[in-house]
Amino acid sequence: MAGMAAKIVSQYFESKETKLNELEEDLLKIGWNFQGGSMVVFFKFDDSDTHVHLEGLDFIRVPEDKFDSMYKVLNECNDSYSHVKFVLDTENGQICARDDDVIQLDSCGAECFELMIRMVKVVEDAYPRFMKAMWA
User: Fold this and answer.
1) How far is 125 from 123, CA to CA, in rounded Å?
2) CA within 20 to 30 Å of 78's CA: 1, 23, 59, 97, which one?
3) What is the per-residue pLDDT across 69-86, written as a single tens digit (0 to 9) for each?
4) What would the pLDDT profile of 26-47 be if each residue is shown by its tens digit?
């Protein structure tokens, strides 16, 4: 059954005229624009097809000398948003948006689409705060 959720999600996105890229049997990727920027969202499904991990990347790069000033904003954002958490990836110098959720095979297409839209909206809302912390 592993990989079935990814197939269902992929088909659902295609029905919405949105193309996902399949990187592996259980890993999908999509690029998405938001006001002020863009991001890449990855969907990683567990072996039982009952959980999905979303990871939003490439929406902001943080120079190493700004890491310390970014932690306060990350904490504020993590306190403000209940479903998406932000993490500073110091190895790659970027902020990551993460979400883990339970899914069901019969509705995982719509669920994952909604989870992605929610993540993009949260990133779009938080983006000016990150930019202000970097350039203040």
Assistant:
1) 5
2) 23
3) 899 999 999 999 999 999
4) 999 999 999 999 999 999 999 9
Tracing tokens 């705060």 back to the chain, one arrives at 129
Output Rg (C-alpha) for the chain, integer angstroms: 15
State if pTM tops 0.90: yes
DSSP 35: T
Alpha helix segments (H runs only) across the chain: 4-15, 67-80, 108-135
Residue 134 near residue 70 (C-beta atoms within 8 A): yes
Q: Under a CB-based contact definition with an 8 Å cutoff, are residues 34 and 22 in contact?
A: no
The region, left, alpha or beta by phi > 0 then psi within -120 to 50, assigned to residue 36 is left
